[in-house]
Amino acid sequence: MSDTALDTVRKRITALDSELLNLLAERRKLTNEVAETKIKHHIPVRDQKREEQLLVRLIKEGQRVDLDPHYVTQIFHVIIEDSVLNQQAMLAERANPGSSLPLNRVAFLGDKGSYSYLATQKYFSRRPGELLEIGCQSFAEIINKVENTEADYAVLPIENTTSGSINEVYDQLQHTQLSIIGELTHPIRHTLLVGADTSIEKIKTLYAHPQVFTQCSHFLAELGNVEVKTMDSTSSAMLTVSELAREDVAAIGSEAGGNLYGLTAIKSNLANQKENHSRFIVVARNAVTVPLQVPAKTTLVMSTVQKPGALVEALLVLRENKINMTKLESRPIPGNPWEEMFYIDVEGNVEDGPVQTAFESLRSITRYIKVLGCYPSEEISPTKVAAASALSE
User: Fold this and answer.
1) Distance spanning both ends of the chain, measured CA to CA
2) Does residue 200 sit within a domain?
3) pLDDT band per the 50, 70, 90 thresholds, residue 93
């Protein structure tokens, strides 16, 4: 193909890409109109049966124009997720009049380029108002910023699929009056970042956050005799390597974050688990109301009485009320040796009858119980489509 012919094809592709973007924007507007109807008639945001029917139809149509079913499914899973999250955000905004701010001041760990920074960008991209980022050096500082009204929200990592729960955040939640108002799961893609022309063999010192080192322990073992230096955040590690600009130092962080500091990725997929995700919570001074049409989670903290089987008795209350528990985390109570506080995440809305019944029962059998927040669940599970039904005519 000649250069002229290649340029012609590329121009057609560019035009089609622009057309696709316009069509996606138009589709989003239509789904927002659907949300208006759901608000008016109290219809749940997700309709799994309709989503399945939609995917089956699209897979069949795709095959007629030689598009692979897996390719079609992947594309529309992303489109459906975007639609669901936008509708949930719209319903939540309507349920909390006056909560929208012209300027969202958000505190998070690190600076530009940290994983918390990227999660903050992702979460507030669906919320009205401008974003003012407030980088902090510790979880305590983040909490204090919101408690002292220097920030409106805080974004905190709470757990990771590789390294598990972030205990320091749970400890901070024991002592704050802030409420959890949201959550999101963000993919963590660790890469080796350098500020000079070099190779892995030349690296002598590695900078990263302690959690990152934990998540990449297998890679560190392969490196051998390399000095590791822990940093307060991923962004500070990247800044240090950028300023040093030496061939014998590197940082571990995201490629997108590294770009902000002029760093180059020389190796990717460093985490022990290739499907590596972190869950973040968003906290604020005031709780939010979650519409019953929106899938919700509730986080509570409780301390059981000191007797055998007390925790089991409390958990049975959830089972009896058909409430699914998604997380159970124990943390020591400062000043009370051998006593623990239990953090529990459940699927359900505090405004819903079964959840209210369960919490009333728990109050009667526990020493202490407090709801830390009820918030929209943003873990959008992809709609499953049976291959046989999708491919049959």
Assistant:
1) 39
2) yes
3) confident
Give 112's DSSP letter.
T
CB atoms within 10 A of CB 377: 20
How does strand 103-109 pair with strand 130-136?
parallel
Same-domain pairing of 335 and 371: yes
- Residue 133: CB atoms within 10 A of its CB come to 18
Helix axes 69-95, 48-64, angle to 10 degrees: 150
* Residue 388: pLDDT over 60: no
Q: How far is CA 390 from CA 51, 236, 386, in A?
A: 12, 49, 6
Residue that is written with structure tokens 């899973």 in the block: 77
Distance CA 37, CA 326 (A): 31
Binding region:
10, 27, 38, 47, 51, 83, 87
Q: What is the CATH number of the domain that holds 226?
A: 3.40.190.10
Name residue, tokens 């307060």: 232
- Whether 386 is covered by a domain: the verdict is no
Binding residues for substrate: 10, 27, 38, 47, 51, 83, 87
| pLDDT tens per residue across span 302-334 | 998 888 888 999 999 999 999 999 999 998 877
